[in-house]
């Protein structure tokens, strides 16, 4: 079976089209062109704002003219992550999909169901001829994954609807009515180089095989952080007899993904060559035991390498390793209002060597409580400031405060129960959604977020559950058909 043979065909055919279109964050030109061409082919009104957000409008079907306008919303960009042994150019190559039982996944890369499946559902509604609905505004935002800049740039007056259905959550049968806010913190170490010392054993150490995952929705699952694991070993051989020096270091990529891989090029005095191998084997056995349940694929490889020309200065190396060790990662606090919900967390996302002798540490903080978000931002900042780094922050984004008295929530709960004879779960999510930003511009919006079941998003293990897509589609269609006319809402 191929993806085009899956049901409901309307969604899967459009999702197939989307997988064929490269759409990294900030490089959404091709998917935008596809959307505008789609609108033209279906004789639908379309407009684009300065940020690149696209709005396609479909008139109400006969007899539904008095139903409030519903906004269907999803983002067009995708997280671009691949396994290190996979050759794939996200700027040019289509995503190769694989059906594995009840799941659809990609070959060694992210799938892009986050949020391509939501975009596909909106297109299926826009193209439909048999769904009865009020006026539809399908909003396709850009650059959600690297800063929500499309949602930030959305201007008042671009939308006219009063109800918004965000199609960007990852568990069928759950209705989300709130999300965390977030902020990014970067630390930069400026370093001097020295000639690499002679009579040293040089090796490339690589942490691999971790699951990665979403830094919001997966942060409480206890997955390993490749940067933390690598640095933990480096710390164990710093300030010791080995004379350890560091030439290169790197790990992770995106602020909203838990890093799966990290590596460093390190030197120790020749006479400690075998000592280091033994020490690493002992260390590996310990961390594999610690992560035996959640990270069965964890491995650390040590390979000898050529002597580099330069090394990072000793003081910066020490400060960097101390800062990375002290930097918190993971869940900081749980919600006191919603059982099981992570309130506050931080992700040590990336370590990158940039031009001009700069090592940049990327981190992201999330919280559903604004003051707690500020606190963890300050905590991470303090660690790196003490280590001598220059610390900067992005503007961050607001959370979405739950509204349990929402009219569209009440309808959604009723419709779900009538379709599947069970109640949906009403939840808030620790991951960031664009909904908080929409409320800043359109405070009257009545919103919920729904989606099919997906796992391991933001990693090459990302997959979407095929049967859940059919259930989610039936739920979405019924919801659109059941939105009452204006008079009935008074």
Secondary-structure blueprint:
Layout: H1 9-19, H2 29-41, E1 45-48, E2 54-58, E3 70-75, E4 97-100, E5 103-106, H3 113-127, E6 136-141, H4 149-153, E7 163-166, E8 174-179, E9 181-190, E10 193-195, E11 200-208, H5 226-236, E12 245-251, E13 262-269, H6 273-290, E14 299-304, E15 310-312, H7 314-326, E16 330-334, E17 342-354, E18 358-367, H8 370-386, E19 390-393, H9 407-420, E20 425-429, H10 435-441, E21 446-449, E22 454-455, E23 463-465, H11 466-482, H12 486-489
Parallel strand pairs: 3-6, 3-7, 7-21, 8-20
Antiparallel strand pairs: 1-2, 2-6, 4-5, 5-23, 9-18, 9-19, 10-15, 11-13, 11-14, 12-13, 16-17, 17-18, 22-23
Notes on the protein architecture:
The chain is of the alpha+beta class. The chain folds into two domains: 3-180 and 399-489, Zn peptidases (Aminopeptidase, 3-Layer(aba) Sandwich), CATH 3.40.630; 183-393, Alpha-Beta Plaits (2-Layer Sandwich). Helix content is 30%, strand content 27%. The chain has helices at 9-19, 29-41, 113-127, 149-153, 226-236, 273-290, 314-326, 370-386, 407-420, 435-441, 466-482, 486-489; strands at 45-48, 54-58, 70-75, 97-100, 103-106, 136-141, 163-166, 174-179, 181-190, 193-195, 200-208, 245-251, 262-269, 299-304, 310-312, 330-334, 342-354, 358-367, 390-393, 425-429, 446-449, 454-455, 463-465. α1 crosses α3 (113-127) and α5 (226-236) crosses α7 (314-326). The model has no long low-confidence stretch (mean pLDDT 95).
């Amino acid at each position: 079976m191929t993806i085009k043979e899956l049901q409901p065909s309307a969604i899967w055919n459009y999702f197939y089209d989307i997988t064929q279109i490269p759409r990294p964050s900030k490089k959404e030109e091709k998917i935008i062109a596809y959307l505008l061409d789609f609108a033209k082919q279906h004789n639908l009104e379309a407009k684009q704002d300065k940020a690149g957000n696209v709005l396609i409008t479909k008139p109400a079907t006969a007899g539904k003219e008095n139903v409030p306008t519903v906004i269907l919303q999803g983002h067009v960009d995708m997280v671009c992550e691949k396994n290190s042994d996979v050759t794939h150019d996200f700027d040019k190559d289509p995503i190769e999909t694989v059906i594995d039982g009840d799941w659809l996944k990609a070959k060694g890369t992210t799938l892009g169901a986050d949020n391509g499946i939501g975009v596909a559902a909106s297109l299926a509604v826009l193209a439909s001829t048999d769904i009865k609905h009020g006026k539809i505004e399908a909003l396709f935002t850009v650059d959600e994954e690297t800063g929500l800049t499309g949602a930030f740039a959305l201007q008042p007056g671009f939308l006219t609807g009063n109800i918004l259905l965000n199609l960007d959550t990852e568990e069928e049968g759950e209705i989300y009515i709130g999300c965390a806010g977030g902020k990014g913190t970067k630390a930069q170490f400026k370093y001097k180089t020295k000639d690499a010392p002679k009579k040293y054993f040089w090796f490339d150490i690589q942490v691999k095989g971790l699951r990665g995952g979403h830094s919001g929705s997966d942060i409480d699952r206890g997955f390993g952080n490749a940067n933390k694991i690598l640095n933990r070993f480096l710390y164990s051989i710093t300030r010791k007899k080995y004379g350890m020096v560091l030439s290169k270091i790197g790990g992770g990529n995106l602020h909203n993904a838990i890093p799966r891989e990290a590596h460093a090029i390190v030197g120790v005095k020749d006479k400690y060559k075998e000592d280091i191998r033994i020490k690493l084997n002992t260390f590996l056995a310990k961390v594999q035991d610690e992560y035996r349940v959640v990270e069965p694929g964890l491995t650390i490889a040590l390979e000898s390498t050529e002597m580099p020309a330069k090394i990072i200065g000793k003081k910066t190396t020490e400060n960097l390793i101390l800062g990375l060790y002290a930097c918190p990662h993971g869940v900081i606090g749980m919600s006191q209002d919603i059982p099981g919900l992570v309130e506050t967390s931080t992700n040590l996302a990336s370590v990158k060597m940039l031009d001009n002798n700069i090592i940049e540490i990327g981190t992201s903080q999330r919280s559903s409580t604004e003051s707690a978000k500020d606190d963890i931002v300050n905590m991470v900042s303090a660690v790196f400031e003490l280590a001598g780094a220059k610390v900067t922050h992005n503007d961050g984004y607001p959370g979405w405060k739950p509204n349990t008295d929402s009219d569209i929530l009440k309808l959604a709960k009723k419709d779900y129960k009538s379709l599947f004879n069970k109640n949906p779960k009403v939840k808030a999510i620790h991951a960031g959604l664009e909904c908080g930003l929409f409320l800043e511009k359109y405070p009257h919006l009545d919103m919920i977020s729904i989606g099919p079941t997906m796992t391991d998003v933001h990693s090459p293990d990302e997959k979407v559950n095929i049967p859940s897509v059919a259930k989610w589609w039936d739920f979405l269609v019924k919801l659109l058909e059941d939105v009452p006319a204006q008079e009935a809402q008074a």
